[in-house]
Amino acid sequence: MSTGTGLGGATAQPLTLSKLDKVYSSRGRESFHAVKAMDLAVQPGELIALLGPSGCGKTTTLRMIAGLETVTGGSIMIGDREISQLPPGKRNVGVGFESYALYPPLSVRENLGYGLKARKDPQAAERVQAIADRLEMADLLDLRPAGLSSGQKQRVALARALVRNPPVLLLDEPLSHLDASARNRVRRELKVLQREFGYTTIVVTHDQVEALSLADRLAVMNAGVIQQFGTPDEVFDDPANLFVATFVGEPQINIIDGVLTGDGTVRLGSGTLPITITDQSAERSVKVGIRPADAALGTAGDAGSSDGLAVTVRFYEHLMEFGLATVDIPGVDARTVIQTPAVQRLAPGDQVTLTAPADRIYLFDPTSGDRIR
Ligand SMILES: Nc1ncnc2c1ncn2[C@@H]1O[C@H](COP(=O)(O)OP(=O)(O)OP(=O)(O)O)[C@@H](O)[C@H]1O
Ligand SMILES: [Mg+2]
Description:
The protein is an alpha+beta fold. Helices cover 22% and strands 32% of the residues. A six-stranded mixed sheet has the order 6-7-8-3-9-10, with helices on both faces. A six-stranded antiparallel sheet has the order 13-12-11-14-20-21. A five-stranded antiparallel sheet has the order 15-19-16-17-18, with no helix packed on it. α2 packs across α3 and α2 (108-118) packs parallel to α4 (150-163). The protein starts with 14 loop residues before the first strand and ends with a strand. The structure holds adenosine-5'-triphosphate and magnesium ion. It comes from Microlunatus soli. Residues 18-248 form the ABC transporter domain.
C-alpha cells in the first residue's frame, strides 16, 4: 500500500501474549523469574504503554517478542501466527531499542536504508528522507553514528524501527535521552505516525506522563506481573491495587493508615471522612488513598467543620498554577499533601479543614494491597 507520503503503510495486526514466562538461569547463579505468566492482548493498531519500575521485566518482555531473548513458556501471536520460536528476522517486528547497534562505518542514511535495500525496496531513499523529516533529523542523515549525541542516536533508532513499516512496533524508552522540548515534539509526532500507519505498538517507559499521553491503554507492571491493564482514565480513576495507585499519579497519592468503621466512614487519626463502599463489615484496618488533587482545604481558621478533618498546614509550596500544602492530620504519623488552587495562599501553622469527595477516597487491604470496594 502506498499513501503518497513516501512512507507506505503497514497492515494492522493484533499481538497476543499468553502465559508468557521468562526465567533467567545461568550456571552458578540463582535463577530469576523476570516475567510471570503474562497475558496481554493488543488490538490491531493500538498503542500500549508498558509502565513499571526499574527491573520489573519490561525490556525482557519486549526482547522476547522481538526474538532477542528466548521464551521460557507461553506463546506470542501476531495475527494467527505463533512467532515465539521464529528467528528475529522472520517475525516482522520493528524494534527501537537504544542498545540496538548501528553499523559504525555507514552514515545514518545508509543505516536507515540498509534493511530496505536488502529487500530491494525501490522507494528506499524516499522513505528514509520522509521519516527523517518527520522525526526532525534530516540534518543527521549524512553523519556517522559515532558523531551523534545520545538523543540523536535515539532518534535514529526510532527512525530505523519505523522506516520498515512493521505491523508490530516495539519501542523501549524511545525518548528518554531527548531534551524536554524535543521530547514533547517527537512524542506527538510518534503518536501521529502510529495513528497514520496503524502499527500495533508497545512502548516501554517508566515516565508516566509519556505513558498517559501516548497510550490507548496502559499495562502497569510490577515484579514480572501485570497489575492492571486499562485506559489511562481507568488506571488513574479506578486503580486495581495499592501498587497501581501509588505508581500512577503525580504528585503521588497519599496513603494513610485508617480504620473502616462500618458506618459509612473511615477513621483517620482522631477524625473521620465519609466514604462510599459496599464492603461494610466489622471494623478493620485499611490503607486509605487520597489523591492530592481530589481533596480540598477550607480557608484558614475554619478547622473543625463536621464532614472534614481539622488539619494543620506544615509547609506550603506555591507552584504558580496551583499550590501544594503539606498538612498534619491529628493522630496520623505520615504527612499528607493536598493540591490547592493558585489563589488559595496558605502558611505554616494555618488550621484548616480537609475534605474529599466520598467516591474519591480509595481503600486498600493493608496486607494484600487489593482494592476494597
Ligand atoms: N540476562 C539476564 N540474566 C539474569 N537476569 C537478568 C538478565 N536480564 C535481565 N535480568 C533481570 O531481570 C529483571 C528484569 O529486567 P528488565 O531489563 O526486563 O527490567 P526493566 O523493567 O526493563 O527495567 P528498567 O526500567 O531498569 O529498564 C531484572 O531484575 C534484571 O536484573
Ligand atoms: Mg528496561
